[in-house]
Predict the 3D structure of the following.
Amino acid sequence: MSHKFKPESLMMTHGYKPELSEGAIKCPIFQTSTFAFKTAEEGKSFFEVAYGLREKDQDEELGLIYSRINNPNLEILENRLSLWDKADDSAVFESGMSAISTVMLEFLKPGDVILYSSPTYGGTDHFIQHFLKKIGVDYLTFHPEDSKEEIQKIIEDSGKADRLGMIYIETPANPTNTIIDIQMCRELADQYSTEETPTFLCVDNTYMGPVWSKPLEAGADLVVYSATKYIGGHSDLIAGAVLCNAELMVRVKTLRTFLGNMVSPHTAWLMLRSLETLKLRMEKQCLNAQKVAEFLNNHPKVKKVYYLGLIEEGTHAHDIYKRQYNSPGAMISFDIEGGEKAAFKFLNALKLMKLAVSLGSTESLAQHPQTMTHCGIDPEQRDRMGISEDLVRLSIGVEDAKDIIWDVEQALAAI
Ligand SMILES: *Cc1c(COP(=O)(O)O)cnc(C)c1O
């Protein structure tokens, strides 16, 4: 009898064989740089596969060689992580930025253009505008609310429509929670793809993944994560991940081998622990966030709440939300009455929630995007994005919902 287990049921055991580790129920940390071959013939055969000198046999697994190429913690982690996004494979990196920059370096070449949604994560934005530009990759940006026709106009007006190498999006946009239609971006990528310059669609799914959104199913070629956030989930590690089909993964992992930016055995082991509770954590975080958003939405000192669960039914945004997400998530932004002064009073008065950037962790966090995460953005552009001095961003954790609301309420009362 066969039965298809859900990812959450497989996170404790999938890909790990206790008999290879003295029967240990948990995967130990393989803190080793290199692996002994049984024979010279075996070493030769492992290298042939690792360096692409021959195809892998049907059931052959890549033998362990050297921890920059492979390591049991890394391999088991990648097998488990792939299940959530139903990807052929995943590659884990030493940071989210490392995953993102490796994908851009592999799938773009000098002369190409990258089109990306703005606002995007500050580090990503800087890498595109400063590093890629320096090596001859141009960029175009669009606003999360732009229509398909407006984006087509941006591409065509650039005069480089035939060199569009990548469409890169972050949805929902941070910190405003504006949703971008992945399917529409797929259509655009198909429209501008050429033999010489195929257009890859890459989605940063850090805000909603891997439980609440599956961009590969919606048409993305590549999904990237800051695994520092929900996947790690305890604010105690930095890591990143890329997920895609087997053909593209060969390219991602080959470049990773030569950049040497894979995750360490210890961090991979911490992530294995984190994956066991991933769904549990994310579900609790979302339940809490829905209650906090509702509370904020009815508070007189709050002007507007930006939360996926509050998108009005019958709107275009709601239609995309229903299609793309199975939950409203745990990130809430809101405009407070009284500008920076009031926002700072609120942040300084919090007793349970911590004042820090980052997101997706077990503890609730609060910050002020205009003067913190998004302070480097051109003020005019920032206004257009709706990142005003009133805006406060919350990442909701797994604490008791009533305690979080008590904290928010007393901090709002302090203004
Ligand atoms: C944090 C973050 C990144 C960068 O990830 P690091 O792990 O800090 O390198 C990229 N994208 C988004 C959306 C993020 O929140």
User: Anything to note?
Assistant: The chain has two domains: 67-275, 278-413. The first helix runs from residue 7 to 10. The radius of gyration is 22 Å.
